[in-house]
Amino acid sequence: MMNRKTSKDHDDIFDVAVVGAGAAGLSAALFLTRARRRTVVYDGGPVRNSMIFKIHEYLGYEGSTPAEFLERGRSEVLSYGGEIRSETVLKIEARPDGFFDVWGSKMKIAARAVVLATGLVDVLPMVPGLKEGLGKYVHLCPCFSGYEVRDKPFVAFGLPERLAQLGKFLTAWSSSVTVVSPHEFDSETLTRLDGFGVKTVQDEVTGLVTEGDQLVSIATASGTEVPCEAVFVAAPFKAASELAASLCEVDEAGFAVTDTYGRTSRPGVWAIGNATDQLAHLVHSAASGANIGPWVVDYLLETSLNPKKKE
């Protein structure tokens, strides 16, 4: 384990800097601190699932709130000597000696390895009331919240390339599903949707119609309304941070490209959770943090023995 050091240029030196304090980042930090690696976690603010009320599909945490889940994770990391800093990481640069300079919003450190757990952002359509309804009657993932709104009439809209699959999938929770899109689906897709009992409306969603706190319909560009009590949005994703793009290979949406062990194209840099897998659920993100732990520790041991070793 690295000894604590300070210098004029850096507040501190760590074995690992974990950027992101959600399920993935805290899980990675828990493994690394238990492996006696000096680890700092950067908490840059609310995580993606902070707008939901309860956690589901996570054995042992069913019905917990995101705040309870994260607070327990933070306590576990701290109990093994990890540090958690309420800072946003502004920049990370690789140094010739194999270290990484990490600029936080408050101070600068150096780390021998970096774990990016920076997550993603759902890019919601510009529909009035959509953001305000998130977690209430506006949903992004049927796996996560379909059961809570089961048997209600659903409307699905958003990215055309994902709507047919979403519409079909929603029939697991409701017998009343309508896909609304200005996109013209081909006859084969329409036939398949009809076979699953999914209605289609070729129109654009322009607003949500509510009565009090209840959704009653969506409004369309043609002036009609489609009755519903819950909407599911096939929203595009984008990387929540540009840090990966400055360090390693990324895809067209800015997500880090990794192998099955979370390794990026730059030795010493890993990416986990939604920072690399847009479809990872909470439990998958937590697992990804634990999965990379042994590989990060191995890298640190190897580079301690041979500082010039870069892979």
Automatic annotation (TrEMBL):
Species: Paenibacillus azoreducens
Taxonomy, superkingdom: Bacteria
Residue ranges crossing the lipid bilayer per the database entry: 12-32
Residues covered by the FAD/NAD(P)-binding domain: 14-287
InterPro entries per record: FAD/NAD-bd_sf, FAD/NAD-binding_dom, Ferredoxin-NADP_redctase_2
Keywords recorded for this protein, A-Z: Flavoprotein, Membrane, Oxidoreductase, Transmembrane, Transmembrane helix
Keyword Nucleus attributed: no
Assembly with partners or alone: Homodimer.
Name under which the protein is recorded: Thioredoxin reductase
Cofactor(s) for this UniProt protein: FAD
MF-aspect GO terms: oxidoreductase activity
Endpoints of the signal sequence: none
Pfam family, one: Pyr_redox_2
